[in-house]
Design goal:
Number of strands: 16
Family: Belongs to the ABC transporter superfamily.
Distance between the termini: 24 Å
Pfam families: ABC_tran
CATH superfamily of the largest domain: P-loop containing nucleotide triphosphate hydrolases
GO molecular function: ATP binding; ATP hydrolysis activity
CATH architecture of the largest domain: 3-Layer(aba) Sandwich
Radius of gyration: 24 Å
CATH topology of the largest domain: Rossmann fold
Order of helices and strands: EEEEEHEEEHHHEHEHEEHEHEEHEH
Oligomer: single chain
CATH class of the largest domain: Alpha Beta
Number of domains: 2
Protein name: ABC transporter ATP-binding protein
InterPro entries: AAA+_ATPase (IPR003593), ABC_transporter-like_ATP-bd (IPR003439), ABC_transporter-like_CS (IPR017871), P-loop_NTPase (IPR027417)
Strand order of the largest sheet: 8-9-10-5-11-12
């Protein structure tokens, strides 16, 4: 796919597409995917690749189309137009061949309220084609331990908190090794310890070679765990690609820590630099003198310079601008 620039100046392209234009192996692919509910366009002609082995964070405000896109990718919702492919098989028609290798937690878990967590997980495991009845008890115990529910495994599900229910849903995903794991808001209802557990599990899956697609509102968690991102707004894909590349493309300029911000600004602007205050620092754009000259200007003017570093964009800043400009 040929990259096309977005309004924000970042690349909009298939996530993980190699620089030489050759096709990269993908765990999931959608082309021209569209879903319309009555007069509402939930997903509007999205093209997206999920590279094999990546951890792709799907970001977007409420109503941006994230869950609808995930449901079409898993064959839970039939698209109005376009195609979807999962582990090399078309969806929904060929989904049966690959779904045993896919673990998914979408729109919250659903279990029997009067059964215990362990009993619910055994029932879920009994439907897994890749799990034998002989291996089922050990797999259930391992999954419960992995998500921190071993101590509450024999309590009834109806007595679980929202976070515990979310953990049990994640345990069902982890019953067997998966090639692709899809998590829709996996930290919903979790406390900080639970959020750290999800981060750990995602890292373990990634280290084990699995591809992970995670939809989340927690930008800090996405920045900490994901290798790729896809940003949606109003049903459209506004940017996608490697997280590091997108952040580097959005970075630029210098951040100068100084107690003399008010003195520094006129010195820099008089030299033709675009400069503005950011807390106890001055941000200097790349449109003026080179960095060594900027520092020398300030020192000659008697401005104390405590630190100078290249500005690195944060995911929160990138996300805010992309979604604002796409409105």
């Amino acid at each position: 796919m040929t990259p096309t620039p977005t309004a924000a100046g970042v690349t909009r392209a298939a996530a993980g597409a190699p620089a030489d234009g050759t096709a990269a192996p993908v765990a999931a692919r959608v082309r021209g995917l569209r879903k319309v509910f009555g007069r509402t366009v939930a997903v509007d002609r999205i093209d997206l690749d999920v590279p094999t082995g990546a951890v792709l964070g799907m970001l977007g405000p409420n109503g941006s189309g994230k869950t609808t896109l995930i449901r079409m990718l898993l064959g839970l919702t039939r698209p109005t137009a376009g195609t979807a492919e999962l582990l090399g098989s078309p969806v929904p028609d060929g989904a049966g061949a690959v779904l045993p290798s896919v673990g998914a937690l979408v729109e919250g878990p659903g279990f029997h309220p009067f059964l215990s967590g362990r009993e619910n997980l055994r029932r879920a495991g009994a439907t897994e084609p890749l799990l034998t009845s002989r291996d089922l008890p050990a797999a259930v115990d391992a999954a419960l331990e992995r998500v921190g529910l071993a101590g509450a495994a024999d309590r009834r599900y109806r007595g679980y908190s929202l976070g515990m229910k979310q953990r049990l849903g994640l345990a069902a995903v982890l019953l067997v090794p998966r090639r692709l794991v899809v998590l829709d808001e996996p930290t919903n209802g979790l406390d900080p310890a639970g959020t750290r557990d999800v981060r750990r599990i995602i890292a373990e899956l990634h280290a084990g070679g699995a591809t992970v697609l995670v939809s989340s509102h927690l930008l800090a968690e996405v920045e900490a765990t994901c290798t790729h991102v896809a940003v949606l707004q109003s049903g459209s894909l506004v940017a996608s690609g490697e997280l590091r590349t997108l952040l580097e493309a959005d970075a630029g300029g210098l951040v100068i820590s100084t107690p003399d911000v008010e003195r520094a600004l006129p010195v820099l602007r008089a030299a033709g630099a675009t400069a503005f205050r950011d807390g106890d620092a001055v941000v200097v754009a790349d449109d003026g003198p080179p960095a060594p000259e900027v520092i020398a200007l300030l020192v000659r003017a008697g401005v104390a310079v405590h630190e100078a570093r290249r500005r690195r964009a944060r995911l929160e800043e990138l996300f805010a601008r992309l979604t604002e400009e796409a409105r």
